Each structure stands twice: as C-alpha cells, then as structure tokens.
Amino acid sequence: MIGMNARADSRDGGKDGPLAGRRAWISGASSGIGLACARALRGAGAELVLCARRADRLQQLTVELGGAGVLALDVTDRAAVERELAGMEVDIVINNAGLALGVDKLSAGDPADWQRVIDTNVMGVLSVTRALLPGMLARGRGDVLMIGSVAGRQVYPGGGVYCASKHAVRAIYEALRLEHVGSGVRFSTVDPGMVTNTEFSNVRLRGDEARVKAVYQGVDPLQPQDVAEAVLWILTRPPHVNVGELVLWASAQASTTSVHRRPG
Ligand SMILES: NC(=O)c1ccc[n+]([C@@H]2O[C@H](COP(=O)([O-])OP(=O)(O)OC[C@H]3O[C@@H](n4cnc5c(N)ncnc54)[C@H](OP(=O)(O)O)[C@@H]3O)[C@@H](O)[C@H]2O)c1
User: Fold this and answer.
1) Which residues' Cβ are closer than 6 Å to ligand 1?
2) Most buried of the four, 121, 193, 219, 264, by CB within 10 Å?
3) Which residue among 195, 206, 247 is best mutated to probe the pocket of ligand 1, counting the most ligand atoms within 8 A of its Cβ?
C-alpha cells in the first residue's frame, strides 16, 4: 500500500446515466485501458474506486472526473489487498491491472520478470476477486470483468509467460462463471489485441522508444477507448444477459502473429 488512506469514499451521488447508483472498482486506472474505463464508466454515471500504485495520477484523475475514491495499492501485495478491500461494497469489479516484461524466449527469460508478471496478472486478479466477490454474492448482484488479452487465446514467440498469465485469467473467468451460476453476479472477459496509447509496450520494452514505435508501425491499433466502450456495453446489458467473452481485434491484426502493416 502506497501513500494515502485507501478508504476514501467515492459516494457522490447525483450522476445520471445507465450506471447511476452502481459503484465500480477499477485496477490499473492510472493509465491506458483502465484510465479509459474510468472515464467511460464515470460518463455513464458510475461511482468509482480507482486503484493503481501511482497515487498522484489517480488524484489528478479524480479532479477530471469530478470525484472518485482513490486506492493506492499494489495488487501483488496480498496482505494489503485483503486489508484495504475488507468490507468494501462495489457492484462492478474491473480486473485490468497487468503487464508484460520483455520479449525473451523462455530459455533466456528472467525468472524475476516471470514472477512479477504472474504475481500481477494472475495473483492480483485472484486476490482482488477473493476480496470483493463475497459481498457481491451476498447482495446477489454485480459484474466481475477481466481485461484479458488475445494472448489468453493464442501464444507467440517471446510471449510465453505473458500468454500463460492471460490463459490463466481466462481459466479463472470460466471457473467463476461455473461456480456462481444463478448467483446474480455476471462474469465477463474482454480480450483485446494490440492497443496503442497505453504504457503497455513502454513497460514491456523498458522505455526503449524506438522498439515501442516499431510495435505499432504501419498499423492502426485499437485505442483504449475502443476497449472501454466494449466494457461499457457489457455492463449496460439487461440483467438476464451475460456477455461472457468479447474478443476485440484491430482490423489489421488477424492473430497474435499476423499483423498487416502499411509499407513505408
Ligand atoms: N496494450 C495492449 O496492447 C493490451 C492488449 C491486450 C490486453 N492488455 C491488457 O490490458 C491491461 C491494461 O494494460 P494497458 O495496455 O492499459 O497498459 P498500461 O497503460 O501500462 O496500464 C497498466 C495499469 O496497470 C497498473 N498496474 C501495473 N502493475 C500494478 C500493480 N502491481 N498494482 C496495481 N496496479 C498495477 C498500472 O498503474 P501503476 O503503474 O500506477 O500501478 C497501470 O495503470 C493489462 O492487463 C494488459 O495485459 C493490453
């Protein structure tokens, strides 16, 4: 846990929209897809509890959004997750915080990087879900949504551990749907292909700008807002509809290994 008191209460009321009166927890709200989800859900009237490690970013965002709860939390810190989320009531959980590190083959990978990816992408999702789901089940309603990846459906060279982590996220989503059918809580996974205007590639390639640029060269990738719109659509379906799995590709991407690039 970093910095401020996590119990900042976001109950501000007064917002209109299809998600008015619903309270959403979003991990990884300080940049990229999580940030876009925060904007979209707030625009639809939801109350927000924003989580990430960079509290300063979240504080700035609360000003833009006209109010939100802020939780500076590292999702890999299981004790902190349990402590800070105990008793927190939310209607929507968006498990978005995640990362990849490096593009090494498994034979040359760094086990410390593997650990961080698994701890964040898998253990983080499990810890947060374990903390927030029982309350939703007791109230008989809610949405738990994963930001997975097409890497949870296909693999590619240099992505073994990241792909393993996102395959695990999809398995967790599937198990949750089976375990809690009829509970009133819906479970979904949104699995995007390549998304630009996030920090994902900067983190993965450790700030190597030339290599980051090359990832998106000659392609119109998805934007974070595209993913957020899909999330919003899922959350605003009527209660009898559970959009389980939604795969979003950029039009120029056919698979994790097939991308059409404009020449030049
Ligand atoms: N970009 C893509 O091409 C793409 C494609 C498919 C799926 N995804 C998935 O989309 C999700 C969001 O990624 P993004 O592209 O938006 O990347 P991003 O801009 O790097 O955002 C990642 C977010 O996760 C947070 N985070 C990372 N580690 C954390 C931790 N230990 N505890 C709490 N928060 C943590 C970061 O905030 P702090 O650093 O402030 O903690 C940041 O807000 C990830 O799960 C990623 O795997 C991305």
Assistant:
1) 27-28, 30-34, 52-54, 57, 74-76, 96-99, 120, 147, 149, 192, 194-195, 198-200, 203
2) 121
3) 195
49-56: long-range contacts (C-beta < 8 A, 24 or more apart)? 49/8, 49/10, 49/23, 49/24, 49/25, 49/88, 49/90, 50/26, 51/25, 51/26, 51/27, 51/75, 51/97, 52/27, 52/28, 52/97, 53/2, 54/30, 55/2, 55/3, 55/4
The alpha helices in 66-101, defined as continuous H runs, are 78-85
Residue 231 exposure: Cα atoms within 13 Å on the Cβ side: 34
Report pLDDT digits (tens) over 73-90.
999 999 999 999 999 999
Give nearest CA residue, ligand 1 atom 7: 149
173 is catalytic: no
pLDDT score of 34 more than 50 = yes
Model confidence pLDDT, tens digit, residues 209-232: 999 999 999 999 999 999 999 999
Domains of the chain, start order: 23-46+89-252 (3.40.50.720)
How far is the centre of ligand 1, averaged over its atoms, from the C-alpha of 29 (Å)? Answer: 8
40 contacts 65 by C-beta, under 8 angstroms: no
Residue type, 238: P
Quick one: which of 54, 34, 53 has its CA closest to 195? 34
